[in-house]
Amino acid sequence: MLFHSVIFPCFFILVYVIYLAMMRRHHVQNLWLLLASYVFYGWWDWRFLGLLLLSTLTDYVVAIGIQKADSQSTRRSLLTVSVLVNLGVLGFFKYFNFFASSVTDLFGVWGFQLDWVTLHVILPIGISFYTFQSLSYTIDVYRGQLKACRRFDSFALYVSYFPQLVAGPIERATHLLPQIMQRRRLDWRQIHLGLFLILSGYCKKMIIADNLAKIANDTFAAHSTLNGLDVILGVVAFAFQIYGDFSGYSDIARGLGKLMGFDLMVNFRLPYFAISPSDFWQRWHISLSTWLRDYLYIPLEGNRCSSLRCSINIMITMLLGGLWHGASWNFVLWGLFHGMLLILYRHLPWLKQTDLQSTRIGHRLPRMLLMFMLTLIGWVIFRCQNIQQMADLEGRVSLAVSPSTLETLKLMCLLLVPMCLVQVIAQRRRDLNWILHGPLPISAVIMAIMLVALAIWGVRQTTEFIYFQF
After folding, report:
1. Cβ–Cβ contacts within 10 Å for residue 186, how many?
2. Cα–Cα distance between 450 and 160 in angstroms, integer?
3. Which of 184, 212, 234 is the last residue of a domain?
């Protein structure tokens, strides 16, 4: 069930009306939301509900066992069970064929023929997201940062809450679970912000991302005839397509949560205003980058070690971050590319970041432009399926102008200039929702304009959200 499908508004209105009728009984609300979440997830393929339930049951039981255990060895053994079950299921469904084919190709280079069994495994939607979310809960209980949840319905809702189930944000139990356990209260500010976030998300997805998708798809097509400046514009189009698509989903998820009294974490903070790789990862897919930092990089000793060891830790973290996105070598290379950028910026004096909090355009602009160009190179690696496609794309890059260039440029300016102006103000004010802080009639007019824009420029035949495949 897609947020931008015809059925979803009907589904949500039904869920929301009944939810509001239960406002004085939050445990009953939780049961209702749990049922709705399983219906939402099962809409794609009911068979994968078993995997969601397996992850939930495993971490529910393991966390209680960890809290009751008397010895550290027992606690460690129980945590190992959680890690093996969660990552084992994720690894089988997402990476089995990738590693099998990679080993076969490697031995083939040496003249050995291996007859691996290739399974036609369907990737369960959202498995990378809910696996990390559920696993982080067990780790937090093991570390003593959280007490084990005794109510199964509350924990099951934490793992499966439908607005953020299939594409994030990847929530933490320390943040979301207390909100589930207590009674929610709604006020006008929450509803106002929720509606704005939902509208903003739909505009990013259906106006920005889906209109730019054709430009990006034509550029990265296997037998594309586009050359010159059109290729550069196509890469820029993909950069804003994936931003609009993914941050749009996160905005919708957060908006739906606000309408129900939940505060989901911010997943994007104007990432293309970043002035360094570390700044970028504090702004892009924040729920994943902080997860990797807290549960992988810091346990590897983070930067509390030698310079060489720190660089290795960065590369391991970014390698696995790239692999999290998919079982393909382009994602591995993308992760390694960002790892190298982090190391370079860390060690080269002229690249070291200065004041990240500065809002002066003259101070930030040169570094922003450099970081944006490096990010574009990363998106080429991310989008291309193999080295040959990257080389082909590079060979078609130039500053030559074709008859279609001006039309493409006009469309991109029409789509991106308004969004960029809004974001420039947000960056200077350090406030993502500055539009809502004016008089109510003004914000109401702005939201009405967004609705009209959706009706006029929103793409009707929309595609799935890009991050659904991860």
Report:
1. 14
2. 30
3. 184
Asked if residue 172 and residue 205 are part of one domain, the reply reads no
309 domain-assigned: no
Four-point Cα dihedral 396, 401, 407, 410, nearest 10: 100
- Asked which of 132, 159, 184 is the last residue of a domain, the reply is 184
261 conformational bin, left if phi > 0, alpha if psi -120 to 50, beta if neither: left
Strand partners for 123: none
Residue 303 belongs to some domain of the structure: no
Terminal Cα distance for the chain, rounded: 16
User: Is omega for the bond preceding 178 within 30 degrees of 0, making it cis?
Assistant: no
| Residue 252 near residue 201, CB atoms below 8 Å | yes
Question: Are 156 and 200 within one domain?
Answer: no
Give the number of other CB atoms < 10 A from CB of residue 315.
17
Token pair of 168 as six digits:
């994030």
Per-residue pLDDT of the chain (470 residues; tens, 9 = 90+): 788 788 999 999 999 999 999 988 989 999 999 999 999 999 988 889 999 999 999 999 999 999 999 899 999 999 999 999 999 999 888 887 776 666 655 555 555 555 555 556 678 889 999 999 999 999 999 999 999 999 999 999 999 999 999 888 999 999 999 999 999 989 888 999 999 999 999 999 999 999 999 999 988 886 667 778 888 999 999 999 999 999 999 999 999 999 999 999 999 999 999 999 999 999 999 999 999 999 999 999 877 888 889 999 999 999 999 999 988 889 999 999 999 999 999 888 766 655 555 556 667 888 999 999 999 999 999 999 888 888 888 888 878 788 888 899 999 999 999 999 999 888 888 888 888 877 788 888 889 999 999 888 887 666 666 666 65
Token readout for 270 is 């104007």
- Give the side-chain half-sphere CA count within 13 A for 458: 20
Query: For the chain, how long is the longest CA-to-CA vector?
Result: 74
Residue 223 in domain = yes
What are the two backbone dihedrals, phi and then psi, of residue 172, each rounded to the nearest 5 degrees? -105, 145
* Residue of 17, 25, 34 lying closest to 259 (CA atoms): 17
Rounded to two decimals, what is the model's pTM? Answer: 0.91
Same domain, 24 and 39: yes
Same domain, 211 and 84: no
Question: Which is the catalytic residue, given 4, 285, 325, 338?
Answer: 325
- What Cα–Cα distance (Å) separates residue 153 from each residue in 83, 356, 413? 22, 42, 48
> Any catalytic annotation for residue 4?
no
448, part of any domain: yes
Residues 151 and 217 in one domain: no
Statement to judge: residues 42 and 151 lie in one domain = yes
Contact 262, 179 (CB under 8 A): yes
Note down the domain range covering 464. Answer: 189-275+354-469
